[in-house]
Design brief:
Elements: H1 3-10, E1 14-18, H2 19-23, H3 35-41, H4 50-82, E2 91-97, H5 103-114, E3 123-127, H6 135-140, H7 155-166, E4 172-178, E5 183-191, E6 196-200, E7 226-232, H8 234-250, H9 268-291, E8 300-304, E9 310-316
Parallel strand pairs: 2-6, 2-7, 3-6, 7-8
Antiparallel strand pairs: 1-9, 4-5, 8-9
Length: 318
Amino acid sequence: MTELAAQERTAAGHFDFSRAEWAALRQSTPMTLTAEELTDLQGLNEALSVEEIEEVYLPLSRLLNLYVVATQGLHHVANDFLGREPVKSPYVIGIAGSVAVGKSTTARVLRALLSRWENHLQVALVTTDGFLYPNAVLRERNLMDRKGFPESYDVRRLIRFLDEITSGHSDVEVPKYSHLVYDVLPDVERISTPDILIVEGLNVLQSWTGRTEDAPSRFVADFLDFTIYLDADHDLIRQWYVDRFLTLRRTAFRDPASYFHKYSRLSLREARKTALDIWDRINSPNLAHNIAPTRSRAHLVLQKGPDHRVDRVRLRKL
């Protein structure tokens, strides 16, 4: 790359990498996942290849490992200066992007890779789905058709969780969410002082635009050390959403306990029409007005092409 080209590529405050340029940054980072593990990690209708791990996620895991080590060093320096006992605070990674863009797969892959670096004993993964208001509350507020929009989340509860976990508290409660019944569950899981916490969800980079009385004094982004945004062309994401809906119609929706069981009885034509209607009424407006505008806040953007293949990577300059 010429000096002029490099200047043009970084002029907007970001380093912009082609896939090949990014892949070269892996250096000697070893491949630690087996083919069987890749099958378990991939999402619905996503073919997660060894090539994708080696060329995209191993360089990213190397970068994150360097950031984690540097941040831990800064914490030690600050504690020494202040003369206080160290408090174990996790390095927090946020992963944002549209419905169906592959956030969950990225989060699972990074958890698996980061947990295998010798200095990361525990990597926890939390999705913001559990911090949605229960369906009963959403119905009361006439928000069932806006599930996933900023106002459908109990942001105060999410902020409280992040405040406790980053303050070194142990045994912190995390609400559970079931995609089968499409609702928050009454029971919780507990997390105790991980080395790294990955927070994945539509809303992790959003500023607050919900009910005034619910407005928090801080945002989720205030707790994040590093943020990743998964991006793709709108038409691609829409197709991925429709394809996933059609696959679920043949699989999970057939479970009588599924909230969406009624969709399993639709014809292929009816199911496609229903999926497009849901996308156009709910997911597309949420992406356009609430999710996509947060892309510029991310430290790193993974730009996807067809087949969920990452084509370009944009990294914000320090």
